[in-house]
Amino acid sequence: MGTMPVYNAGYLHTMFIDRVRIRVTGGAGGNGCMSFRREKYVPLGGPDGGDGGNGGDVVFVADPRLMSLLDLHYHSHWKGQRGVHGKGSGLHGRNGAPSLVKVPCGTIIRDFETKELLCDLVDEGQTFCAGAGGRGGRGNTRFANAGNRAPRFAEKGEPGEDRDYLIELKVLAEVGLVGLPNAGKSTLLSHLTAARPKIADYPFTTLSPNLGVASLDQYRTLVIADIPGIIEGAAQGKGLGHDFLRHIERTKVLLFLIDLGDEDPVQTRIVLEKELSEHSAVFEGRPRYFALNKSDVTENRERLESLLPHFPGAFPISAVTGEGLDELVEALWQEAERVRQAAVVNDIPFQPEREYTYTAPFTIVEEGDGYRVEGDRVLRVVRMTDFQNPDAVRYFQHSLQGMGLFKALKRLGAKAGQRIVIAGIELEYEPDSIDPWKR
């Protein structure tokens, strides 16, 4: 009988994902219903088809309990709930429930194609509608009028918004630790907070940011981020380059951790400040403090006096023994609080002026031997028309006529037989017939 395999117990290491591409599709609207009232002793009951429900939106919600975009990395396509179809007897379909996608605070949402910044989710509970649900189709009851008492068509539900996004995460912390690899940042973070980054005599840097909360007296706290070590040339993309540096753009205070055992600590400071300034101008006015680490080593303590003039106000510390850490954390908290208070004073709510603008229902572009018609309103009409139903097609024609599309084509010189493309549907223009379109 074979022996059972033995597995070593250990901790699972969760990947830190801070940039993903995802696709979002809003829920489609439910179809409207074509129905007529059929009841004994009630002749010509008339139309009673109900409307379809609206599709559900896909909404991003900032959640402080999340620390990475790992869920989005493994779930790259989010879809909204579809609206329920309408039914007879005037029964309307239920609206699709919104789909909430939780993301960490500090998430930036960009359009994948243009890289345009669309939203910055910083505060807990802040939301962004990433995929609007489609409108529900109207039942045939909506189209009854004096000229058509028994409409035999209903609208289809509108498809939901479909869009690709680039999601980025910039960690939210009040203090960002800046230093070369092996400067002792992970050790310092583990001493000040409950964070437990991997610590050893590695010849390489930490591969992901670590967050920790330092507890002070009087219920005060300070969020500290251990940003992966910067190497010379990081601003130009060396190593992980911008993947490292962009995580400290949001911090209120920068703490430069200098290893007293470095060959030239002054040159180390120059390298770090140069990389920050080349990466982004936001660091120019950022408050910064200097901590001279490993002061418990005899050789380092001997050279401390000669280095202090180059680091005015620096704190000699030992991340291992805890020497000087109380004074350092208190100074960092005071500076972070000062920055917080200044931000509150300068945070004047922006009240945009109300603007009334007219948006054309369509635009016409000459394309080859025909024309292409674009526009949100005309696109919605096409998407919600059942082209297998002659009555629905006639209403489609009536809608475009009301928008002025026929007159616009005539002014542009459109000729009989020319190809007109509307939302991917090719039509043949016949201006002299009762129905200008031939399908």
Question: Can you give a write-up of this model?
Answer:
The structure is a single chain. The chain is of the alpha/beta class and 439 residues long. It folds into 3 domains: 19-169, Spo0b-associated Gtp-binding Protein, Chain: A (Distorted Sandwich), CATH 2.70.210.12; 175-346, P-loop containing nucleotide triphosphate hydrolases (Rossmann fold, 3-Layer(aba) Sandwich); 363-438, GTP-binding protein OBG, C-terminal domain (GMP Synthetase, Chain A, domain 3), CATH 3.30.300. The chain has helices spanning 70-74, 185-192, 242-245, 265-279, 298-307, 325-346, 376-383, 390-403, 405-411, and strands spanning 19-25, 58-63, 77-79, 99-104, 107-111, 117-121, 127-131, 162-169, 175-178, 210-215, 221-226, 253-259, 288-293, 315-316, 363-367, 370-374, 419-422, 425-429, 437-438. The strands form 4 sheets. A 6-stranded mixed β-sheet has the order 10-11-9-12-13-14, sandwiched between helices. The longest helix is centred in the last third of the chain and has 22 residues, at 325-346. The chain is elongated and about 105 Å long. The N and C termini lie far apart (75 Å). Mean pLDDT is 80; it is low at 1-14, 199-206, 233-242 and 347-352.
Mean pLDDT: 80
CATH class of the largest domain: Alpha Beta
Helices, by number, come to 9
Q: What is the number of beta strands? A: 19
Topology of helices and strands:
Layout: E1 19-25, E2 58-63, H1 70-74, E3 77-79, E4 99-104, E5 107-111, E6 117-121, E7 127-131, E8 162-169, E9 175-178, H2 185-192, E10 210-215, E11 221-226, H3 242-245, E12 253-259, H4 265-279, E13 288-293, H5 298-307, E14 315-316, H6 325-346, E15 363-367, E16 370-374, H7 376-383, H8 390-403, H9 405-411, E17 419-422, E18 425-429, E19 437-438
Parallel strand pairs: 1-3, 2-4, 9-11, 9-12, 12-13, 13-14, 16-17
Antiparallel strand pairs: 1-8, 2-7, 5-6, 5-8, 10-11, 15-16, 17-18, 18-19
